[in-house]
Design goal:
- The chain contains 1 helix and 5 strands; from the N terminus they run ββαβββ.
- It has a 5-stranded antiparallel β-sheet, with helices on one face.
- It is globular.
Length: about 80
């Protein structure tokens, strides 16, 4: 059976509180979920990590809001230790 990888998107607050905003089967779908969740936004920073399951961090500013938001994307392989 081929391993299945999922991507979990989390919004990270300034107090380091995290809440999940979506789960995707690919990085492309993860980016689409961000657009659907926040609407139009400006990308402030993108940092590739690709270590310990963390794929990347993005700092964005939704055009409907003045605050910047940090989003993390973590990958997990299902049914694997």
């Amino acid at each position: 059976m081929k391993p299945v990888k999922i991507y979990v998107l989390q919004d990270i607050t300034q107090d380091d509180f995290r809440h999940i905003i979506g789960v995707a089967e690919s990085n492309e779908i993860a980016l689409a979920i961000i657009s659907e969740y926040y609407g139009d936004y400006e990308l402030i920073m993108h940092r590739d990590i690709k270590d310990s399951g963390v794929e990347w961090y993005r700092t964005i500013k939704a055009l409907s809001d003045q605050d910047e938001t940090v989003i993390s994307c973590q990958s997990f392989t299902l049914n694997e230790i």
